[in-house]
Amino acid sequence: TRHRRIAFLSSPVILCAVMVAYLVTAQHVPGWVFIILAFVAGLPSPIRTGGFSGLIPTVVPEPVLPRAYGMEAASYNIAGIAGPALAGLVAGTVSAEWAVAATAIAALIATVVIARVPISPGLPNSERSLRTDLRAGLSLLWQVRPLRAVTVATTLSQGFFGLVVLGFPLFAHALGHKRAVGGLLFSVLAIGALA
């Protein structure tokens, strides 16, 4: 897309908007609305988890590129350590609403940071349609065995990680702690991943 900056900014902007919507509507809407809002917040996840990696070569010189990629990969685990622990701490000591507000503030700060990153517009590809590119990408995933294996494994692991998201707060509660302690369990998981 020629509008890459807008695409990259969509991730934190949507997350911030959903968090504000949670806070504004918390006492006035049925629970299924939160599920829809969570779905909307998840839509730009590919930008967050993979898209930003594509910006690294545009802002980092070639000689330090491998180190930059390594630091970027570690940053996911560092965020996975600090984020849930902080959210659990805030939710457990103050309230869940304040934890949601902290998430909105973090997304707002991310928006400001991303707005300052030099992002060049994408080059249009007039030769092929988006459908053709998607078909070619899926064909490549199917034909290249290592790529297919990694994609399947990653997809399955992310599905199971969704269960962990639900399970950790419930597990903490079953152990006699506040559900917010589930954030600490996330952090311990991320420390293991970082190690």
Textual characterization of the structure:
The chain is built from nine helices and no strands. The protein has 195 residues and is mainly alpha-helical. The longest helix is centred in the last third of the chain and has 30 residues, at 145-174. It is globular. The model has no long low-confidence stretch (mean pLDDT 85).
- Strand count: 0
Rg computed from alpha carbons, rounded to a whole number of angstroms = 19 Å
Oligomer: single chain
Morphology: globular
Helix content: over 70%
Write the layout of secondary structure elements.
Blueprint: H1 4-25, H2 31-42, H3 45-51, H4 56-59, H5 65-93, H6 96-116, H7 130-143, H8 145-174, H9 182-194
Helix pairs in contact: 1-2, 1-6, 5-6, 5-9, 7-8, 8-9
Characteristic terms for this protein:
195 residues; mainly alpha; 9 helices; globular
Briefly characterize the structure.
The chain is mainly alpha-helical and 195 residues long. The protein has 9 helices and no strands.
